[in-house]
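Notebook entry, structure prediction.
Reason for the run: the old model in the group folder had no record of what sequence produced it. Starting over properly, with the input documented here first.
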Amino acid sequence: MPALDAWVDEHGGVKGFAGGEAFDNTEIITWDADVLVPAALEASIHKDNAAEVKASIIVEGANAPTTPEADEILNEKGVLIIPDILANAGGVTVSYFEWAQNIQQFRWDEERVNAELDKKMSQAYSSVGEVATEFDVDMRTAAFVLAIRRVGKAALARVHIKTDLSF
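New structure, fully documented this time:
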């Protein structure tokens, strides 16, 4: 690793490093792995490579790394896909924590931020999982169903508030 770090510092990347073998970066999607985390490009898993994915779990770190056609193929294979809308929620959640702290003029230490984030992400994963089980759907569909439920509930609450106001 130190030699690789030095190479990257000097050359700006890993290309040409003598301590490894070059490969086509599109091959990574089909490598033998338990968990695959596509975290760079949109549509990196598509109809032409989805059938070759060997991982049993995909955690979408990038935005929309799986095309709808690939999603269908992977779901048919029984691959658990943690959709980007759920897997990427941590960064947005921490941004909210920062905003809330700034408004209230206080500061959490890193340990508190991580504990709160763990709690929120665990709750989110559980909620999506419960909806997936309830409707017998994949996690992406369940995340959308949950989001629509929440927006609908908020909209109904808003209408209720407006109609119950008496002046």
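Summary: The mean pLDDT is 93.
The old model has been moved to the deprecated folder.
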